[in-house]
């Protein structure tokens, strides 16, 4: 194993440990009542975000969906800002206005999670079109789930990207389920690869629980996209170990299904590989431990971080015709 | 009479109607698993997968297929999961469902019910909290139902399912756990009749949907302060009970409209405008509205709370109105 | 040539002549100022409507698009009601409320033209689902243009139909152009067949200017659909001889393009075939003449038919909360 | 000063801005062929196909791609062809464009202009004639422009293109051929300033967009009958010129709002409600609205004419108001 290659695997491992630790910490905080609102975690799917984003530059952009913590972290979003956002605090990336479903960190090219399934697709293709117009060599990576391929914007966005040969890498994170419904029970035809090719976007499948494989596939596709060959789609097959939201027990799954899936999950797999390739367990434990410590510290800080000043509720709506809190004590009552 | 939650009341209403009429069916995401809120629990088992259809995440087609199925004589309940996703199906709703009877000179009767759980709910932020019911009062061809109690939700849902008009049924998400009595056999409630929540003589408060409990609480506080409010829950916004509201304001001469939606362009404007037009400004001493400011719904609790109409804000607004 | 087969060809010819005559008459009436509003004619595309609808029963349903006169006529819609509708008269199928873009005749299963591109697709799949629920053996045929395959409902509707194995025949009438833009310049990938198959809907292409070929292909697909095999798609390649609307000269076409296309247009082709197979020219002229006479008579009747009573403007909005003209002299002015 | 049509005025405004700022571009169906109304004639030749992008019939993506392109720093003009097709792109407009700046705590500036030719136009029937501008006054995050003259359309379009807020620009389809003067160099017109069309003292008439010529004509007829109307064209509905309207009504004590949109739930309700709230009902002697009844737009000329607000109806409404 070359040092370079090992360094990549270690980087992947580090990112995945951080994603896992972030989400387990967030889950615990949510259960403890520290985090309001809905929370969708991607536990079990970390290899996709890690493997793809390792191939992106900071000035590349990504769009994400409702299950976007991993994408954001892998793209380099600041942890404190993410955790505070989940907690609804003033120091969150969105100043507490977005929460888990709307995390964005434009400073690292993370153009936002999205509360609408497939909502990030048109945004991604437009961002790519804009970047090309501005003469940038940056590309856009668009993450969405298997559920999104049944919404109209999937067709429109892929056709559009292929038509204008836009620098977009579409990543379909296929965890086999959309909310509480199995993907296969709502998806006709041969699948996302065929749909993608039929729209003019070359595509390939990868074991989305194998971080190194995802990295390899993404490296190839990103090179093609960046080289001007037009859009590509990566179909990453993975498994959602938890329920749809933090409060969903996913009780409808078959007995043994989750247990069976655990044996394929990405973190132990990469760990085993690194061990087999001579990486000391201690070093891996340290990476994991650091990640846990980082996230637990972030939780502590977020919990004691200040809430947003209610007056800020009126900020950042629009410049023209913005309302202020003095203009609205209680509706239009100041004048009656 | 059983005490049930609002969401359970809706479930019972739909259940009753699906038992009564085999042409009634339901389609939407996860409905075969009981729906996101359990509002279709047990339906798959009782009615089978031809009448309880879990769909792909294809809002345009959920809405449009419901219409198509109505055109051949079935009576679909179109479940939209969360109101905000209706934005993905507006062509089907506004350009097709609402207009098809008229445009085709009466050949089509799009007898659909579109269920859209709406409003602020547990810090769901800007894309899962909207209350845009006023939009649909502006669209000819549709009935707009905005119930706030278990009995009203059940009775209006029965009426909606039996109606040959398309009915937009706004389930009040945040009131789903609220309990109330629902009759064994649920009778339809006619559209366009307000429910008088409280009789009073000092001012008229008109409200609906999510803000009904806040107004109820506020009216109690006002009563304790010696202010007697005449409180009406409109229950439907189109048709709406103009006559009852005007009669009340003619007595009290003061009107406050309270809704969760943004004040600007909200249905409160229509209520106020219509009352002033019908009674004449001279018959009114003061009129005002309380809604959200023109700001998207923020995530963080202190921000959401700052903007959301609640009992103290209703009390303050009513008191300001009485000073005018 | 068997008598049966010849009867079919004659029927096709008759329908095509009627469509052509209807639209040429309507065009002339529009130019004469007798028909208000936009008018989209399908001159050159008649073989698709004729060939497909010959295989449908009266209780089968169709949905159509903005260019739907041919579909309606071929499905059996009454001519007087259609012409009066174009003229905005009280006796129109829609009582003058719809016009050309919204012709519907439910009495023969014509569920309506549509002013929104792809708007008929979700309606068609739902109608099929409803029919099955009611125990009907009727099927639904859904006509749309090449432009519609770039809108989201195409993906959603085909996936849906395939998923529930609905009795729908999709017909993509590919005239190579959407409004003023060539289809190929806005459509990526290998085309509608591949898109259809990728969504689980078996599809085939046909020369849409060859009425007999369309009839054959439609017969096969309709049999499959009616037999319970699920949805099918027919890709009919044709050519729009006129501009997008009646007022569009389509001046941007290449020199000679339309002239070249004229030599492939469906009416002379079928006529030549019938002549070659021994049908007397006189008989064909009579069919054509009858069609022209029928339409010219319909124009005359429509022109002298009564306008709708303005009071009917308030009818058929809705039962609950309907407004009346007495409730609205001028806004809410009766009460101020 | 050249005399040009409204559609040409808009063309000149966009042309000027695309020459000024290379980040400005236009996308939509058929725009490379000059647009449906010729509003982009010659653009392809001058700016090339990277900045004048004819798109597939993919409204969701036209809207959403415009947003994405704005997020990386370009300034798209999103051409929607006919307003009614915006129904196919409502998620992108309402859930994304309008909310993204707020939801992301100010990180995003979606500087797009969405052009939506709207209103009744040559018997186009129910799916091509809607005027739903009031909807967007109810949606925080967007500017709503509704010009009615060539000069206003040009000046507001320049302001829209330069604005960092998303601007919904309602091109008035039926006024496209109307001629007026437009300056050589088109200056931006600030949002929220009404244009006084006529000074008067007997009543205030407020209008915008398609009904401006009808109101102009009506005001002339009223003047001939000795009634002097103070007439304001709002030009933008958000922000809107509350101050000018209130000042006018404070003088005339009578308010008539005229718009092409359906009266119920139209922006006339907001204007009337706000004036009554601000001035108090006691300051107003009569107030009313004239819009379309709550009926879809029919095709046949006699039906369309029956419902459409025109000069005689404005005169009748004004006279009724003066009797109150
Ligand atoms: C347009 C739209 N419809 C429905 C929803 C509700 N919803 C949120 S996540 C989800 C499932 C999405 O499945 P998938 O895309 O596979 O992502 P996953 O949750 O599996 O990561 C649904 C239906 C939504 N957010 N947006
Ligand atoms: C959603 C939508 N977008 C745009 C339009 C405007 N429009 C009407 S017809 C048309 C072209 C349609 O092309 P195609 O589907 O190929 O049908 P054809 O006109 O070629 O028969 C367009 C863009 C529309 N009616 N609906
Ligand atoms: Mg999934
Ligand atoms: Mg075409």
Q: Low-confidence spans of chain A: pLDDT under 50, at least 5 residues?
A: 329-336
Helix content of chain A: 40-55%
Sheet/helix structural class of chain B: alpha/beta
Bound molecules: thiamine diphosphate, magnesium ion
How much of the sequence of chain B is in beta strands?
15-25%
The top-level CATH class of the largest domain in chain B is: Alpha Beta
CATH topology category name of the largest domain in chain B = Rossmann fold
Order of helices and strands of chain A: HHEHHHEHEEEHEHEHHH
Indicate how many domains the architecture of chain B comprises: 2
Give the strand tally of chain A.
7
Task: Measure the end-to-end span of chain A.
Answer: 77 Å
Mean pLDDT of chain B, rounded to whole units? 97
How many β-strand runs of chain B?
Answer: 14
Number of helices of chain B: 12
Side by side, the strands of the main sheet of chain B go 3-2-4-5-7-6-12
Enumerate the spans of chain B where pLDDT stays under 50 for 5 or more consecutive residues. none
The CATH homologous superfamily of the largest domain in chain B is termed Thiamin diphosphate (ThDP)-binding fold, Pyr/PP domains
Q: What overall form of chain B do the CA principal axes indicate?
A: globular
Describe this structure in words.
- The complex is a heterotetramer, with 2 copies of chain A (336 residues) and 2 copies of chain B (324 residues).
- With 336 residues, chain A is of the alpha/beta class.
- Chain A has one domain (3-309): Rossmann fold (3-Layer(aba) Sandwich).
- Chain A is 43% helix and 9% strand.
- In chain A, the strands form 2 sheets. Chain A has a 5-stranded parallel β-sheet with strand order 1-2-3-7-6, sandwiched between helices. Chain A has a two-stranded antiparallel ribbon with strand order 4-5.
- In chain A, strand 2 (140-145), helix 6 (152-163) and strand 3 form a beta-alpha-beta unit.
- In chain A, helix 4 (79-87) crosses helix 11.
- The radius of gyration of chain A is 21 Å and the shape is globular.
- Residues 329-336 of chain A have low confidence and may be disordered.
- By secondary structure, chain B is α/β, with parallel strands linked by helices.
- Chain B has 2 domains: 2-182, Thiamin diphosphate (ThDP)-binding fold, Pyr/PP domains (Rossmann fold, 3-Layer(aba) Sandwich); 195-323, Rossmann fold (3-Layer(aba) Sandwich).
- Helices cover 37% and strands 19% of the residues of chain B.
- Chain B has a 7-stranded mixed β-sheet, sandwiched between helices. In chain B, strands 9-11-10-13-14 form a 5-stranded mixed β-sheet, with helices on both faces. In chain B, strands 1-8 form a two-stranded antiparallel ribbon.
- In chain B, helix 2 (43-47) links the parallel strand 2 (24-28) and strand 3 (52-54).
- In chain B, helix 8 packs across helix 12 and helix 9 (242-252) crosses helix 10 (267-279).
- The N and C termini of chain B lie far apart (44 Å).
- The chains are: A alpha/beta (336), B alpha/beta (324).
- At the A-D interface, helix 5 and helix 6 of A face helix 3, helix 4, helix 5 and helix 10 of D.
- Residues 145-147, 175, 177-178 of chain A line the site of one magnesium ion.
